[in-house]
Amino acid sequence: MFHPLRTAAAVLLLAGALVAPASPAPAAASAPAPAPVSGFVDGHSHLFSYETFGGMLMCGKPFDPGGIARALADCPDHYPDGRLAWYENFTRTGSATGTHDPVGWPTFRDWPAHDSLTHQQAYYTWVERAWRGGLRVLVNHLVANRQLCAIYPLKKYSCDEMTSIRLQAQRARELQAHIDAESGGPGRGWFRIVADPAEARQVIGAGKLAVVLGVETSEPFGCRQILGVPQCTKAQIDRGLDEMRALGVRTMFVCHKYDNALCGVRFDSGTQGAIVNVGNLLGTGSFWQARTCTGPEHDNTIDPAGVLPDQIVRLLPPGVSLPLYPPAPHCNTRGLTALGEYMVQGMIRRGMLIELDHMSVKAAGRTLDLLEAARYPGVVSSHSWADPNFLPRIYALGGMVTQYGHDATEFVAEWRRTAPLRQRYQVPGYGYGLDVNGMGRLPGPRAGNAANPVTYPFTSYDGSVVLDRPRTGERVWDVNVDGVAHYGLVPDWIEDMRHLAGQDLVRDLAAGAESYLRTWEAATGSAS
Question: Which UniProt keywords apply (predicted)?
């Protein structure tokens, strides 16, 4: 495990850089191994998802040139008391009815909250607190979902997924420029979008945050399928991958939520799964198709139909209801298509990281076959949406796994369960995929934490900063009460897990940035 360099300069810069032990150079001079870095990696988050789904489903922005009062304001349809915010209410409570105080800045009485899925949770000063607390690599996925955009009645943008991806990439550059301006000029800010692992190491060595752009979208490059017929070509895939590279994207999903022309998806469960299944029907012309699995790997279980909000029921064609499925465990009958294999091979040629999550087990297994045949290490499971039986194959290739941002107790349990795997494959570190602003709950307050709560103030893992309860406007948050209500509480969540698991967990997380960079370096080296 890696420990931070304890020099005054490193503490001031929050660099967390380490000096590798010297070793004799080989006779034929080769480039020395880079010095390992120290710090946390968030392998999966969405700072700019407020611009997707038509631009009116997610409320609030990570920044606004007009200031925080304009950035952290609720959606117009949530006023005056939240009762019209049916999607917020349904995803938070299971009922389309409910109320909340829509006022954000400066009171923040009801939001952000760890279980509020439509309110901004990653304002840039909250991300800054996470960086000061040890975050060194942030993978920001540009996200889109045409069907969710179509389902939600309010919108100001087109539902075209690639148009949304381009806009979010622009917003990422705008945030970088905004932070630069606050920091004294171009290149001087702490938020740095990086194009390759060498640049990431330079950024981290300078004490800044390396931001990697990714894409998580349901129909990349228009590759939807209708009644089994693909709506894209190999030429579209090549043009799309080249455009993503030009935008700075370095990691990408092949499918997400809905079956597409590239692969079948790993199902969602529960009532949310029922909603997504309706979207699959509307987008592809058919519901998910499942069989009872016969092997050890399986997709998430499609639960019996739950109570759907009227706004979703009205979208079903007359006389059509959710189908019945065979006994669990369920496996999607759709795997990786010929076009999907072409995309995977195209990502290998371009040295891109391939995100395995959201693929059906049939698609994920075939993707791993291709990567193993090519000896390509650039594979990532970034937020616990792949079957755990695939983890040994990911690690054996040299890939990276970051766990979803579960509550502290569950996160620690999964970290312990997978520790022998990481030891077997000599994986340097571990990470989390918080999925902030990704329509998933952030870690809640730990149950039973009264016996050993986080005590404020506390010191960051490397001793560089002291962190008290975060305050924005009139609101003060406490992880013991609020959980991870916003991104700035991530260091507090890690401190909470330290209470459960000790320094071993923190050391593994502090080696996460290095682990991610090694996978990325191996992928780019393999491609070249």
Answer: Signal
Residue 480 structure tokens: 């013991």
Report d(CA 459, CA 465) in Å as an integer. Answer: 6
Taking the C-alpha atoms of residue 227 and residue 276, their distance in angstroms, rounded to an integer, is 17
- DSSP states of 130-184 as a string? HHHTTEEEEEEEEEE-HHHHHHSS--SS---HHHHHHHHHHHHHHHHHHHHHHHT
Q: Which two tokens stand for residue 20?
A: 């590798």
Return the bridge partners of 476, or none.
471
CB 64 within 8 Å of CB 70: yes
Q: What is the DSSP letter of 37?
A: B
Kindly state the percentage of the chain with pLDDT values over 90: 83
403, 431 Cβ separation under 8 angstroms? yes
Q: Which residues of 368-389 are buried (b: 16+ CB within 10 A; e: fewer)?
A: bebbeebebbbbbbbbbbbbee
Task: Name all contacts of 76-85 with Cβ < 8 Å and 24+ positions apart.
Answer: 77/154, 78/102, 82/110, 85/118
Task: Kindly report the number of other CB atoms within 10 A of residue 79's CB atom.
Answer: 14
**CB contact at 8 A, 124 and 62:** yes
The burial of 299, by beta-carbon neighbours within 10 Å (0-12 exposed, 13-18 middle, 19 or more buried), is given as buried
Question: What's this model's pTM, rounded to 2 decimal places?
Answer: 0.92
The C-alpha atoms of residue 304 and residue 323 are separated, in whole angstroms, by 9
**What are the backbone angles phi and psi of residue 9, rounded to the nearest 5°?**
-65, -40
Per-position DSSP letters for 93-119, written without gaps between them? HSSS--------TTT-SS-S-TT-SSB
The tens digit of pLDDT for each residue in 81-95 reads 999 998 899 888 888
d(CA 166, CA 171): 9
> For residues 372 and 385, what is the distance between their CA atoms, to the nearest angstrom?
20
How does pLDDT run across 477-498, given as a tens digit for each residue?
999 999 999 999 999 999 999 9
Residue owning tokens 């996925």: 141
Residue 10 confidence (pLDDT)? 33
What's the rounded Cα separation, in Å, for the pair 194 and 516? 14
Please tell me whether residue 313 adopts helix, strand or coil conformation: helix
- C-alpha neighbours within 13 Å on the C-beta side of residue 414: 17
Among candidates 494, 493, 527, 528, which has minimal Cα distance to 510? 494
CA atoms within 13 A on the CB side of 510: 24
